[in-house]
């Protein structure tokens, strides 16, 4: 007798999170990466147990306070049970949170990779150091990756949910390790750090150095090379590390959650990112659509009602003013505004629905978060948001 | 504030948190200025930018193109800017050979703090200095990087002791630091993080650059729906009895319509709170310009024109 086939359970964020160890939330600026990462981690801690860490970048102050983390400094902190109790839930596991501080992250990196104390102190005190770390090769992204690698390989957490920095280009984040490796094996870097006399300037590169010299002055180039000489002992470490990070990203236990609103620019970026994940053979776990207006705004009957309120406010007001104990003119103004408001938001909701329908390749799991009428700044807000996407 | 009215300056850097409407506002300022008869250049700093979408024109390039009467647009490319700089200002002829070395140059530009930024800021300052335009509007980088960009000439001057770059930074600093010439515009939306970042950025522009903060543009402001008395009426409508009366009069899903209005009211209230915070966090003489939330189907040139009109009203035109 053939066994009836068990119906496949529908893919959900919950199932995705149950199967992974690293979940990386990415997307365009301001779409809700920090909020959804915190909310999903909260849900995982509540329902799945274990030790869950959310690694956040620059959360709003109120959210940071709610999670009990300092906005600066790299320390991981456990969200107290009392905070959960205040939100009316009892977590099966532990929720930990940590901030990502780029400056601190770089200092830690230098400390870890420096061959000796003298070099370490010289680098940390070098005036070029800070300037450099603040801007070159997406240093934010690189530090985020490093930290993730460090935390994951420490084996302290069952699940790490990662929020990503607001880069212009979400791809930068993926490219950070490779670019870092590139940077440290660059030809110019080798040239700059070679002993002066052995510098062989070939014909092709000569104009460049002449120009560089004229523009920046020999002294400045020398300052740069001195700095890189100091760093030289660490290149191997950096390159090796960058490759290890790259490997973690490709690991089966790692997945990406792309976050977007339904505004046109973020959607375009999300689509681009999804495509990029595919080409790079990275795992796309879910698409989270945030701040979505309610579909009731598209209700045809409601539209008729709203039009009527807008067009015939005076008539309607006259009919209901008495039982409502309202002054008819004032009531008419209110009814008209109510109708107009609905129709205004409907235009936006309509556009969103069309954008959603046009979105080409979407992953198996697509979760929508409604537009909440206030900011999400505490644990109960996170739970409310989390409940919308979890199952 | 020492500077003249917004559009009477010669160079405006429009910045703000990601996604708040920098490009929208930059495009609208430029359109408004052009319509008022100023020869205007609008430039986006981000090569991956979408400025062209706001005018519904084909992609822009480093070479400025006239889109509408008086309005030119361009997209910044540091490499092109470098080539132009070498050719025009340093009179270095062998630019052709630079091609294969672009990567290496990219490295120096990345490694040497301020070089890339100076190539960007310098290009716009150059256009101002040559008086090619009456007004140059820059759709600048977001909050996190704009200070580094605006302070680049100064930073580079401190690091580079000799050489042509140092000599060039002199006139750049003069133009940047002159409020009659240059102004920064921060775009904010009345939300938590954009407001926090705006207040912080206003302070940093003041302390870490010599650029004058010309105005803060508050984008996406929701209209006030109800006066206090009206709000009370609205609440009565939402109570079960009120709703029943309304259903009797108009039929249909009244609750759905009312809840949309409720969303508008609460959103407006939340935003009003952030607005107050913004006002309190900025110097009291700071010029604040308010632009409404647009409920449009499509955010193309039509929307840009609406924003330009609203901006014109705010500026008293
Ligand atoms: N569904 C929602 N409804 C209402 N407000 C929301 C929602 N999701 C997020 N927000 C609010 O939107 C703002 C931006 O969210 P968040 O900080 O998570 O975005 P982000 O993608 O991390 O931004 P950034 O790119 O700047 O890091 C926050 O103030 C947050 O409270
Ligand atoms: N006043 C407004 N009303 C409604 N929507 C708006 C308004 N201003 C901007 N938008 C929308 O917000 C989105 C972001 O705007 P815009 O691209 O100008 O922001 P930005 O700050 O330049 O973003 P980025 O940091 O990605 O460059 C766009 O989809 C735009 O149409
Ligand atoms: Mg964030
Ligand atoms: Mg933009």
Give the tags.
heterodimer, A: alpha/beta, Rossmann fold, 8 strands, 58% helix, B: 317 residues, alpha/beta, 8-stranded mixed β-sheet, 15% strand, binds magnesium ion
Summarize the structure.
The complex is a heterodimer of chains A (391) and B (317). Chain A is α/β, with parallel strands linked by helices. Helix content of chain A is 58%, strand content 12%.
Q: Can you put this structure into words, describing what you see?
A:
Chain A has 391 residues and is α/β, with parallel strands linked by helices. Among the domains of chain A are: 18-118 and 139-183 and 252-293 and 371-390, P-loop containing nucleotide triphosphate hydrolases (Rossmann fold), CATH 3.40.50.300; 297-352. Chain A is 58% helix and 12% strand. Chain A has an 8-stranded mixed sheet, with helices on both faces. In chain A, helix 14 (264-279) links the parallel strand 6 and strand 7. In chain A, helix 16 (313-324) crosses helix 17 (328-358). Chain A is elongated, with a radius of gyration of 27 Å. With 317 residues, chain B is an alpha/beta fold. Chain B has a single domain (6-222, 284-314), classed as P-loop containing nucleotide triphosphate hydrolases (Rossmann fold), CATH 3.40.50. In chain B, 52% of the residues lie in helices and 15% in strands. Chain B contains 13 helices and 8 strands. Chain B has helices at 22-35, 51-55, 78-88, 102-111, 115-129, 143-150, 152-159, 164-176, 192-208, 228-238, 240-250, 254-281, 301-314; strands at residues 11-16, 40-44, 65-68, 71-75, 135-139, 182-188, 212-221, 288-292. Chain B has an 8-stranded mixed sheet, with helices on both faces. In chain B, strand 3 (65-68) and strand 4 (71-75) form a beta hairpin. In chain B, helix 7 runs antiparallel to helix 8 and helix 9 packs parallel to helix 12 (254-281). Chain B is elongated, with a radius of gyration of 23 Å. At the A-B interface, helix 7, helix 10, helix 11, helix 12 and helix 14 of A face helix 4, helix 6, helix 8, helix 9 and helix 10 of B. One adenosine-5'-triphosphate (ATP) sits between chains B (16, 18-24, 142, 219-220, 291, 293-294, 299) and A (29, 263-265).
């Amino acid at each position: 007798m053939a066994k009836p086939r068990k119906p496949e359970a529908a893919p959900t964020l919950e199932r995705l999170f149950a199967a992974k160890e690293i979940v990386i939330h990415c997307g365009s600026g301001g779409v809700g990466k920090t909020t959804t990462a915190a909310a999903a981690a909260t849900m995982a801690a509540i329902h799945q147990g274990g030790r869950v860490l959310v690694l956040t970048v620059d959360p709003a102050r109120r959210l940071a306070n709610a999670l009990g983390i300092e906005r600066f400094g790299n320390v991981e902190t456990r969200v107290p049970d009392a905070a959960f109790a205040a939100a009316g839930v009892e977590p099966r596991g532990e929720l930990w949170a940590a901030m990502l501080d780029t400056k601190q992250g770089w200092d830690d990196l230098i400390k870890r990779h420096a061959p000796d104390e003298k070099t370490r102190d010289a680098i940390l005190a070098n005036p070029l150091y800070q300037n450099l770390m603040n801007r070159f090769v997406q240093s934010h992204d690189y530090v985020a990756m490093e930290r993730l690698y460090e935390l994951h390989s420490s084996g302290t957490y069952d699940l790490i949910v990662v929020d990503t920095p607001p880069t212009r280009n979400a791809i930068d984040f993926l490219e950070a390790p490779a670019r870092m490796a590139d940077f440290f094996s660059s030809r110019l870097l080798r040239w700059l750090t070679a002993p002066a006399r052995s510098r062989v300037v070939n014909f092709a590169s000569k104009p460049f150095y002449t120009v560089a010299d004229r523009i920046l002055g020999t002294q400045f180039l020398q300052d740069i090379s001195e700095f890189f000489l100091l760093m030289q002992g660490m290149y191997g470490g950096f390159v090796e590390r960058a490759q290890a990070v790259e490997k973690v990203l490709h690991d089966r236990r790692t997945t990406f959650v792309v976050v977007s609103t339904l505004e046109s620019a973020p959607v375009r970026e999300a689509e681009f990112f999804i495509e990029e994940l595919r080409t790079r053979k990275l795992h796309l776990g879910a698409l989270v659509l945030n701040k979505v207006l309610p579909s009731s705004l598209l209700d045809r009957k409601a539209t008729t009602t709203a039009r009527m309120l807008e067009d015939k406010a005076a008539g309607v007001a006259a009919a209901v003013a008495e039982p409502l104990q309202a002054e008819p003119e004032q009531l008419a103004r209110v009814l008209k505004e109510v109708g107009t408001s609905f129709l205004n938001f409907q235009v936006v909701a309509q556009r969103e629905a069309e954008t959603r329908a046009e979105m080409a390749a979407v992953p198996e799991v697509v979760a929508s978060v409604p537009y909440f009428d206030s900011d999400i700044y505490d644990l109960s807000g996170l739970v409310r948001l989390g409940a919308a996407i979890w199952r | 504030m020492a500077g003249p009215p917004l559009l009477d300056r010669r160079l405006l850097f429009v910045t703000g948190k990601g996604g708040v409407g920098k490009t929208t506002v930059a495009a609208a300022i430029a359109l408004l200025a052009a319509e008022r008869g100023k020869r205007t250049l609008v430039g986006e700093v981000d090569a991956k930018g979408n400025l062209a979408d706001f005018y519904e024109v084909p992609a822009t390039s480093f070479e400025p193109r006239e889109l509408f009467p008086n309005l030119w647009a361009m997209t910044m490319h540091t490499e092109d800017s470098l080539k132009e700089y070498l050719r025009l200002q340093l009179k270095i002829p062998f630019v052709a050979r630079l091609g294969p070395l672009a990567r290496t140059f990219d490295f120096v530009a990345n490694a040497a703090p301020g070089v890339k930024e100076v190539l960007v800021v310098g290009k716009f300052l150059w256009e101002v200095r040559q008086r090619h335009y009456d007004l140059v509007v820059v759709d600048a980088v977001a909050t996190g990087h704009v200070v580094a960009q605006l302070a680049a000439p100064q930073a580079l001057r401190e690091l580079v002791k000799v050489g042509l770059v140092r000599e060039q930074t002199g006139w750049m600093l003069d133009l940047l630091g002159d409020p009659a010439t240059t102004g920064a515009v921060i775009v904010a939306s009345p939300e938590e993080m954009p407001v926090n970042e705006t207040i912080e950025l206003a302070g940093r522009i003041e302390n870490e650059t010599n650029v004058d903060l010309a105005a803060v543009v508050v984008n996406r402001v929701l209209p006030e729906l109800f006066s206090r008395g009206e709000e009370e009426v609205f609440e009565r409508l939402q109570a079960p009895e009120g709703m029943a009366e309304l259903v009797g009069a108009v039929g249909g899903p009244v609750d759905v319509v009312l809840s949309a209005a409720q969303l508008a009211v609460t959103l407006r209230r939340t935003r009003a709170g952030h607005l107050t915070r913004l006002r309190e966090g900025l110097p009291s003489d700071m010029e604040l310009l308010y632009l409404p939330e647009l409920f449009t189907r499509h955010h193309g040139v039509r929307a840009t024109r609406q924003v330009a009109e609203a901006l014109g009203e705010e500026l008293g035109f």
